[in-house]
Amino acid sequence: MSAPEKRSAVFIAISTSEFMKTALLLRRTRMHFPRLDVAEVEINPIPKGGSDRKFYRIHCSPEQALILVKYNLEREENRHYVHIAKFLGEHGIRVPEIYFHDPEEGLIWLEDLGERDLYRYRDEVWLVRRTLYESALVQIATLHGLSESVCVEMKQHLPAEFNSELYLWEQSYFFENCLGRCFKIDRTKLALLAGLRPLKEIAERLASFPRVLVHRDFQSQNIIIRNGEAYLIDFQGMRPGLAEYDLASLLYDPYVDLPEKERGELTEYYRARQLEHGIAINGEFDLKLRLCAMQRLMQALGAYGFLSLVKGHKHFLQHVPAALKSLQRIVAAIDGLSELEKTLRELI
Length: 348
Known about the structure:
The protein is of the alpha+beta class.
C-alpha cells in the first residue's frame, strides 16, 4: 500500500469540483497580498442569496481575514461596485473597505465585517433591535441627504434611474414571476390585473417626484452589524430614486416581520434624520411610502418567483407568504386596486 498523501496546508471547504477554481483564487490572493500568513489558509464559500457573484471568506489567522468577491464581467453594475464603495466611504457612509480590485479578472478583495447581519437580530427584544435599526437609518439618511452636486459625479457609474418604465417593470416582474409562475394564475386574468389603470398612474406619479441616491436593496440581510454599528453592503444597484423606496424596503422587509408600532417608531426616527439634513417632510411622505412599499414588495415577490422557479434557489419560496400578506395590506389602502387586493387575499 502506498503511503497516505500529506494533507495540503490549505483547507478548502468546498466541493471537489470547485477545487481548481478556488486554488486559482488562492494564488491570486497570495500574489496581491504577499504579507498575509498563508501557511494555513481556510477558504469558505459564502452563500449569498440569488446573486450571480461568488463570495469567499478567507482566513489566514485570527487577525487576518478578508472577503473575496468574484463577479460576472458581463453584468455592468458589478463593474461599478468599487467606485460606489469608495464614493460612499468618502462621504461618511459605513461600507466595507476595498483592499484590491482586479477588473480584468472580476475580483475584489475587501474588508471582512463579520457574519452578523441585521436579520440575525430579528428575535432580540425591541430595545436591542431599535438601536441597530436606528444605526442603519442614520446611514441611509446620510446617503439620501447628499447634495445633487455631489451625486452628479457618480452618474456614469450608476444604473438607470427610477422612472416610470422601471416602476412598470417591477409590476410586470411581479405578475409574471409571482402570480404567474408561483400561483399559476392564467394569462387572461394576469393581463386584466396588470392592466389596472391605477398601477400605471402610480408608476407615473412616483416618477414625477425629485430623486436622491438610493441603495435599492436596503433590507436586513444587506446591513452588517459590527461593534453595534450598521454597515451597508450589496449597494451595486444604487441609483437615483425615492428615499421612501429604501425606507419601505427596510420597514416591509419580508425576512423580518416588524409590528406596526415598531414601523411607526422607525419612520419617525428616519423623518427626524431627514430634517437634520435639511430635507423638508411634506404631506406626501406617507403616500409615497405606501406606494413605494407596494413597488418594493412586488419587486421582491417577482424576484422570489424567478430565483426559485427559474434559477433553482427554492429556499426563496419560504418568504412568499409573508411578502404577499404585506402586499395585500398595502394594496387594500390604495384606491382602484380592489380586484388585485381580492386576488391577493384569496392566495394568502
